[in-house]
Amino acid sequence: MAAPVAIHLEFGGGAELLFNGVKEHHVTLPSQSEPWDVKQLLVWIQQNLLKERPELFVQGDSVRPGILVLINDADWELMGELDYQLQDQDNVVFISTLHGG
Amino acid sequence: MCQVGEDDHELLQRAEVPGVSKKCVKCKEATAAVVIRAGDAFCRGCFKEYFIHKFRAMLGKNRVLFPGEKVLLAVSGGPSSCSMLAQVQEGLRQNAHKKLRFLPGIVFIDEGGAVGQSLEDRRRMAAELQAVFKATGFPFLVVPLEQVLDLPSSVVAAAPAPSERAAGVYKKAVGRFIQRDGGGRQAPLEREETPLADVPECRTLLLQQLVGSAKTLTAREDLLNTLRQHLLVHTARTEGYSKVMLGDSCTRLAVKLLTSISLGRGAQLAQDTGFSDSRYGDIVLVRPMRDYSAKEIAYYNRMFSVPSVFIPGLDTKTRDKSSIQRLTESFVTKLQADFPSTVSAIYRTSEKLQTACTSSSSADHGDRCLLCMCALDTAAENASAFKATLISEQLSQKKPPGAPSAAVPEPAPLEPESAAATGQCCSSGGGEDCGKAAGGGGCCSSAREPESSDLRRLLCYSCQLTIRDMSSVDRLPVYILSEAQRRLRRSQMREQIGEFLLDQGDEGDQRMT
């Protein structure tokens, strides 16, 4: 039984437009049996935070190409991308590098 | 995919996920924080060095910026241009290694009117950016795009290029500069900064009508780009800057390259995506960020707190297929996600492009596109594909090409000058002599605003397509229409007295003026 995980989310580069313009979110992921990983976090964001146009943020299992993900200020490619397991008080940043938000 | 040959291995290599907590490949000590290109992981310190060094190397390699020169930085608020601003700031620091030596100024073009932003949003974003600009200490200007309606025709008339500078001149100039003031402090601000003045609503409406008259989003974006460039060049000219720095990143330029090909701008690729763009003659546009991918810029901005403001554009939150630009961007980004060398491959290809016609000083007014100021590429020989499209277009037109345009209501705020232009063409446009009696009848009878079909002759292929997408060309700003009229009159005059000229070409021109 994993404890609830408190995560600090940030959105930048236009991605915040999909979240009512709010750039910073402090969220607490509910506890569940397996540890939270980034793939599940994306699903959770889509269900709970994303206000409109999900196809502009997620694509299939992962984020849409062109959206960068930083975990604790490091490239998520170095952390295992979708398989990285979230720790308490982690900082996850989504930056869009696309023209259209 | 069969992997027999090793040549295509690098190009088609899928992205490999590097191991967790890898060490930096450069210093081999600190933990890596960013993955650049395919598999190179850098730590924060090495990344910062790499980033800063690339900027200096780009400017140093292309010796275009002379010391002491006034350079205008075109900042849109987006990550690339704000990063460029930060790099310039970093480079001008007193104790910087290989200090930069030019005098920067900043311009921000507020396009909120064309995009449909509310006045409060525009003011808020302009205020945020102003705070950023003030912190840099450079003189800055905030120019609303509505000012493009007031530009003089000199913007689209080709200006003479400055004398070509030989390569050796650069080194001498640097030497002289160092001797003279030895890197003294930059002169303090001579003038007050100009905050965003309130734009009268009728101007915004005119601008929206202009942009809205293009039926497709592709044409609208193209038109907006053209107008923005004209305004930038005009601002640079009036404020005394000789160079303009644009913040286009590698990713953005790769998308632009493919988009340009799709839009029919293949002939102008070298100027649209190259490092320096001298189509405007006296003002040279440079793109120092063209070596940075969007990812590198985003990481640098995040890690080293470079402020930027997100300003929504025309294609924000639109679907993938809404415009050619959007579709190409989505294509390139998706490809890049799987094959990380996509963008750099496109970039390397674009570096090899060069303009076909070298001397721009010999090209007179008639040889340049009215809108994009590049050399015309529409000499349609009989067997060319372009000629075929022209013929098929003529055959498929329902109404005869000479019919006057449908009644277009004159917009009320237009100056009386253009209303007079429809009446008599002789007195408008600075009193140009309208030609002798023999040709006088023909000239004065064409006393109407140029139509879409008239403008075609003055435009390059892709600008023709953009104009074709517009419901009426009357919405174009006065400076474009009056320059078009002037050129049409010139070419008519030339046709009429052509047989009386002794020498075709240069000598004939001198005689006419």
Automatic annotation (TrEMBL), chain A:
There is a cross-link at residue 101 (Glycyl lysine isopeptide (Gly-Lys) (interchain with K-? in acceptor proteins)). GO terms for cellular component: cytosol. The keyword tRNA processing applies. Pathway: tRNA modification; 5-methoxycarbonylmethyl-2-thiouridine-tRNA biosynthesis. Signal peptide: none annotated. It holds the Pfam family Urm1. Gene3D superfamilies: 3.10.20.30. Acts as a sulfur carrier required for 2-thiolation of mcm(5)S(2)U at tRNA wobble positions of cytosolic tRNA(Lys), tRNA(Glu) and tRNA(Gln). Serves as sulfur donor in tRNA 2-thiolation reaction by being thiocarboxylated (-COSH) at its C-terminus by MOCS3. The sulfur is then transferred to tRNA to form 2-thiolation of mcm(5)S(2)U. Also acts as a ubiquitin-like protein (UBL) that is covalently conjugated via an isopeptide bond to lysine residues of target proteins. HAMAP family: Urm1. PANTHER family: RURM1 PROTEIN. Belongs to the URM1 family. This is Ubiquitin-related modifier 1. The gene is URM1.
